């Protein structure tokens, strides 16, 4: 076929894709034609959806999610369609909503998502028919609910009668999916992309703030801000019944677009998975089937690389590769923002792209000068494989099957996978999408001034002036430019694997993973207190020294372990800290103020070293840690990484200064207050007491909140979200699960606060995978949706 014919065929295919994705059929009957699903609402509003096809399954999923969280889905679509400024306001051309809109408007104008939907429908070159059917059905289900209810009659005040609530198209969901894929890469530096402008002939470019890009540059690893997780994969040697078990404990935002949604999705004979997915996604992303369970934790690997560009003399928009100039491409995009006198006014920005990817600035670090600029390659920008990957994960029977899925699709955008199967084998893998920066490439192609940055953080700045420094392709990689499976860390174990957002190195301390590219993570370095506590909890359970009965895990003992609410930092240093403030009952705060430490000392001495609701003074220790009080006298010992360092540096004056600062910060809040009285979550007029606490203090059950002076911590920002302790046995899965912030964001929903109150009391809902488990639920309610009816 001639090039012109191939181009014509590609354009035709793209046009057909666009026509299908944007089509919204005219009549209600047409919209629902052929769709049908059964929804069985169990306790806490969890939908168990059964359908005869993936299109019908998507329909039921979209309908149920719209019933509970339509406003969240609608707002995600507003973001991905570059309309935040128009609907939610903007304070100026550099406002966060404006920057977001400009970034996504460029992706829309570039037809980024549409191009990823053209190609062989094998889940690799483009999404499979099964996944496309799920998306098509999901959109139809959402639209069916919205049509029946009407935007003006929605019970959720967050979006009732709002102009941004409208029927969806399939393209809307594909765009929100792409936005999730680039969450830790180009989206994380979008303000640096938006701000990038060349210097003028008379001087340097006007520098705009790029706080997000600067934060990414300063981060110690590639984890996206605001998310994290714990997970255990337990094998036969670690469980009481010799089958596998999994703990899922993702730490995600309690509000907004990244909330989880519990669901059980089933197409008989083809797919049967219980767990949770992010609101707006039609698939279970963390969960289990009959013989396999899995969770995800945020990986430390980097998702993009920098390229230092040598610019052509006299032309800051051309760059040299092997001595030959290449012209950057430009695209000017325009978004509408609220005008000062009503209506909207246009804001435009010109973006600059290279064959590597977009030009990015980080003022003061990566500036665009007359001689140098920086571009990034985002290896997730072409990743639309994720739903196919998760679909196939849900069909795997064992962790060995799961590895084959990971190897084939290489779809995980920024997370590890921790899993176990009914045979009693556990798996850890960071088989996420990682740029192909091999040790050889980093040695040859990272210029000397940037080698320390790579060594300390894994951020690679490659020499963009040499074609030999391109990312290249591993022979076993799913796509060019990423590390293939053979170059990624993986471990099978009969006892256990864990991860709490440190690198892969200590997934199991008895078999450290070493020798991998620095871009994935660090090795033989100190672990966080949360990682160390997670490992210590497993080791004590297997030794039978944690105070719980017997040895090995059951679902009950795993639940008690997660919500045991130990504070590892307190266990290590509290007694020495009390000795310091007892001997010297005053301290000097950072601002020079002399602070009386006697009440703080007494509160810490009485504290029970936990973050339970009845723990008095726990918040004081957390504030001490946040004030940089955890300073250790001993050093990290690579031969004992779980327990070192661990001794407070009592001679360091900064320790007493941190305690004085903590006392100052808590002015008006009793230092010995009961945690449940000062740490709460609002639900309507209720204030639900919340246990858990800051990871920096060495707390496994992580809860992050903002201190309100004189009040306490009245709102959870993020932390423990979907928690699952699943046990795999010969009779199927069993165990416990909960969604800490509850199933619905709608304050008028019966499922707005029920699981939050349950979490407050360390309660749980049971796994309801089998028909017998589901039928035993006294609150079960069944209805059918589809064909224009709901009954």
From TrEMBL:
<dbReference type="InterPro" id="IPR002692">
    <property type="entry name" value="S45"/>
</dbReference>
<dbReference type="InterPro" id="IPR043147">
    <property type="entry name" value="Penicillin_amidase_A-knob"/>
</dbReference>
<comment type="similarity">
    <text>Belongs to the peptidase S45 family.</text>
</comment>
<dbReference type="InterPro" id="IPR043146">
    <property type="entry name" value="Penicillin_amidase_N_B-knob"/>
</dbReference>
<keyword id="KW-0732">Signal</keyword>
<keyword id="KW-0865">Zymogen</keyword>
<feature type="signal peptide">
    <location>
        <begin position="1"/>
        <end position="28"/>
    </location>
</feature>
<dbReference type="InterPro" id="IPR029055">
    <property type="entry name" value="Ntn_hydrolases_N"/>
</dbReference>
<dbReference type="InterPro" id="IPR023343">
    <property type="entry name" value="Penicillin_amidase_dom1"/>
</dbReference>
<protein>
    <submittedName>
        <fullName>Acylase</fullName>
    </submittedName>
</protein>
<dbReference type="Pfam" id="PF01804">
    <property type="entry name" value="Penicil_amidase"/>
</dbReference>
<keyword id="KW-0378">Hydrolase</keyword>
């Amino acid at each position: 076929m001639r090039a012109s014919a191939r181009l014509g065929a590609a354009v035709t295919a793209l046009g057909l894709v666009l026509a299908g994705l944007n089509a919204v059929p005219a009549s209600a009957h047409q919209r629902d034609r052929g769709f049908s699903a059964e929804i069985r609402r169990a306790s806490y509003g969890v939908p168990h959806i059964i359908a005869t096809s993936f299109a019908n399954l998507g329909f039921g999923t979209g309908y149920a999610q719209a019933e509970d969280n339509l406003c969240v889905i609608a707002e995600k679509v507003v973001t991905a369609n570059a309309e935040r400024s128009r609907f939610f306001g903007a304070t100026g051309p550099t406002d966060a909503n404006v920057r977001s809109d400009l970034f996504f408007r460029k992706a829309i104008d570039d037809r980024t998502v549409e191009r990823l939907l053209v190609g062989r429908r094998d889940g690799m070159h483009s999404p499979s028919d099964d996944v496309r059917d799920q998306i098509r059905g999901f959109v139809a289900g959402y639209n069916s609910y919205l049509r029946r209810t009407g935007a003006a009659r929605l019970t959720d005040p967050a979006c009732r009668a709002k102009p941004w609530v409208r029927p969806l198209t399939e393209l809307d969901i594909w765009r929100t999916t792409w936005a999730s894929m680039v969450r830790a890469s180009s989206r994380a530096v979008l303000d640096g992309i938006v701000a990038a402008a060349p210097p003028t002939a008379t001087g340097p470019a006007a520098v705009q703030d790029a706080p997000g890009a600067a934060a990414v540059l300063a981060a110690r690893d590639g984890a996206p801000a605001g998310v994290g997780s714990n997970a255990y994969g337990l094998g036969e040697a670690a469980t009481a019944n010799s089958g596998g078990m999994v703990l899922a404990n993702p730490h995600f935002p309690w509000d907004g677009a990244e909330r989880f949604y519990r669901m059980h999705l089933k197409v008989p004979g083809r797919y049967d998975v219980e767990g949770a997915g992010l609101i707006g996604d039609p698939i279970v992303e963390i969960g289990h089937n009959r013989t396999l369970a899995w969770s995800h934790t945020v990986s430390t690997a980097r998702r993009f690389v920098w390229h230092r560009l040598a610019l052509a003399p006299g032309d800051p928009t051309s760059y040299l590769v092997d001595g030959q100039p290449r012209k950057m491409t430009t695209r000017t995009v325009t978004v509408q923002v609220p005008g000062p006198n009503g209506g909207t006014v246009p804001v435009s920005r010109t973006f600059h792209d290279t064959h590597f990817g977009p030009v990015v600035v980080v003022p003061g670090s990566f500036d665009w000068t007359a001689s140098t600029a920086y571009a990034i390659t985002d290896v997730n920008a072409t990743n639309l494989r994720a739903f196919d990957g998760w679909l196939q994960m849900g069909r795997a029977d064992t962790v060995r099957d799961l590895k084959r899925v990971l190897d084939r699709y290489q779809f995980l955008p920024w997370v590890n996978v921790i899993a176990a199967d009914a045979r009693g084998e556990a798996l850890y893998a960071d088989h996420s999408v990682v740029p192909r920066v091999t040790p050889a490439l980093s040695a040859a192609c990272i210029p000397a001034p940037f080698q320390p940055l790579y060594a300390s953080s894994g951020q690679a700045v490659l020499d963009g002036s040499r074609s030999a420094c391109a990312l290249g392709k591993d022979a076993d990689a799913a796509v060019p430019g990423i590390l293939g499976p053979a170059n990624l860390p993986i471990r099978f174990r009969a006892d256990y694997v864990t991860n709490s957002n440190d690198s892969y190195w200590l997934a199991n301390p008895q078999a450290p993973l070493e020798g991998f590219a620095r871009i994935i993570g660090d090795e033989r370095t100190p672990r966080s207190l949360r990682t160390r506590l997670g490992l210590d909890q497993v080791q004590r359970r297997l030794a039978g020294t944690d105070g719980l009965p017997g040895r090995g895990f059951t679902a009950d003992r795993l639940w008690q372990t997660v919500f045991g609410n130990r504070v590892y930092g307190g266990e290590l240093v509290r007694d020495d800290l009390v000795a310091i403030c007892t001997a010297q009952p005053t301290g000097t705060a950072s601002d020079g103020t002399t602070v009386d430490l006697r009440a703080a000392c007494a509160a810490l001495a009485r504290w029970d070293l936990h973050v339970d609701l009845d723990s008095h003074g726990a918040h004081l220790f957390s504030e001490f840690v946040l004030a940089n009080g955890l300073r250790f006298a001993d050093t990290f010992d690579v031969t004992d990484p779980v327990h070192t360092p661990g001794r407070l540096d009592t001679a360091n004056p900064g320790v007493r200064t941190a305690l004085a600062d903590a006392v100052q910060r808590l002015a008006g809040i009793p230092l010995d207050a009961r945690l449940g009285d000062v740490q709460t979550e609002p639900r309507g007029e209720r204030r639900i007491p919340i246990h858990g606490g800051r990871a920096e203090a060495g707390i496994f059950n992580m809860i992050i909140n903002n201190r309100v002076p004189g009040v306490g911590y009245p709102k959870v920002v993020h932390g423990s979200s979907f928690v699952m302790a699943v046990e795999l046995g010969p009779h199927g899965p069993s165990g416990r699960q909960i969604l800490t912030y509850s199933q619905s964001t709608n304050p008028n929903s019966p499922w707005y606060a029920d699981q939050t109150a349950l979490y407050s009391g360390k309660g749980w809902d049971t796994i309801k995978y089998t028909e017998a488990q589901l039928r035993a639920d006294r609150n079960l309610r069944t209805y059918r949706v589809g064909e224009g009816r709901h009954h």
